[in-house]
Amino acid sequence: EYPVVVCQNLTVQLDDTGNATIAPQDVDGGSSDNCGIDWGLSTVVPNAFTCANIGDPITVTLTVSDPSGNTDTCLAQVTVVDEVPPDVICQSIIVDLDALGEATITPADIDDGTTDNCDADPLLELDITAFTCSDLGDNTVTLTATDQYANSDSCQATVTVRDVTPAVIVLNGPAYLEVPYLGVYTELGAVAQDACDGEQPAIVGGDVVDTSTIGFYTVTYDYTDSSGNVST
């Protein structure tokens, strides 16, 4: 006497390697036999699934056997889904501002090998990509990876922003005295233009020049910005 076979549809979740397998009992909907069912002799075909099977339901055949080898079959629909988020990995970086006091980064700068079980190229997004002088120091950014099935995960990294560009010292104009000047030349004849400090007076560096004698003199102007960059 043949078993009375009953099927049920199934949704199967892929694992983090992009694979899944099912057993005959997974699609059994209450099959019975007068002498009992031997699940060791029963089969379901196909029983293995990968990322390539995501989408339309797949028809599988359940064959139920009793201990005497009597069998009967039915069909079930298996829907394969991916609900595993990407394995997102961050790295911290150092970013130097340019001469305008600006810097930008991309998700690739923070990504340190993000992977996904089914998507070879998950979408990477950063919550912060642009930095200015107001961001000097450590900044926390969040990298989010989203696969093609809308599964996502995030990680955080530190972006250390530095100002490494010295100020530009601009002379106010020719510094000269039309008549003998008995004393020392201490006027501030230059300004320092810095992306992060703005425009500041430059100072006379080194020894003060003695201009008590008519002639030509070299005056050196120095400026150290708030990040320690020195201009001369």
Give the tags.
single chain; 232 residues; mainly beta; 4-stranded mixed β-sheet; 1 helix; rod-shaped
Give a structural overview:
With 232 residues, the protein is mostly beta strands. Helices cover 2% and strands 40% of the residues. It contains one helix and 20 strands. The chain has one helix at 107-110; strands at residues 10-13, 19-21, 43-45, 48-50, 58-65, 71-81, 93-96, 102-104, 123-126, 130-132, 137-146, 152-162, 168-171, 184-185, 190-194, 198-201, 203-204, 209-210, 221-224, 230-231. The strands form seven sheets. It has a four-stranded mixed sheet, with no helix packed on it. A four-stranded mixed sheet has the order 7-12-11-9. A three-stranded antiparallel sheet has the order 13-15-16, with no helix packed on it. A hairpin with a 5-residue loop joins strand 11 (137-146) and strand 12 (152-162). The longest helix is centred in the middle third of the chain and has 4 residues, at 107-110. The termini are far apart. The mean pLDDT is 92.
Distance between the termini: 101 Å
Q: How would a crystallographer describe the biggest sheet? A: 4 strands, mixed
* Fraction of residues in helix: under 10%
What is Rg? Answer: 37 Å
Average pLDDT metric:
92
Which geometry do the CA atoms define? rod-shaped
Number of strands: 20
Strand content: 35-45%
Number of helices: 1
Query: What structural category do the secondary elements indicate?
Result: mainly beta
Topology (elements, then pairings):
Elements: E1 10-13, E2 19-21, E3 43-45, E4 48-50, E5 58-65, E6 71-81, E7 93-96, E8 102-104, H1 107-110, E9 123-126, E10 130-132, E11 137-146, E12 152-162, E13 168-171, E14 184-185, E15 190-194, E16 198-201, E17 203-204, E18 209-210, E19 221-224, E20 230-231
Parallel strand pairs: 1-6, 7-12
Antiparallel strand pairs: 2-4, 3-5, 5-6, 8-10, 9-11, 11-12, 13-15, 14-18, 15-16, 17-19, 19-20
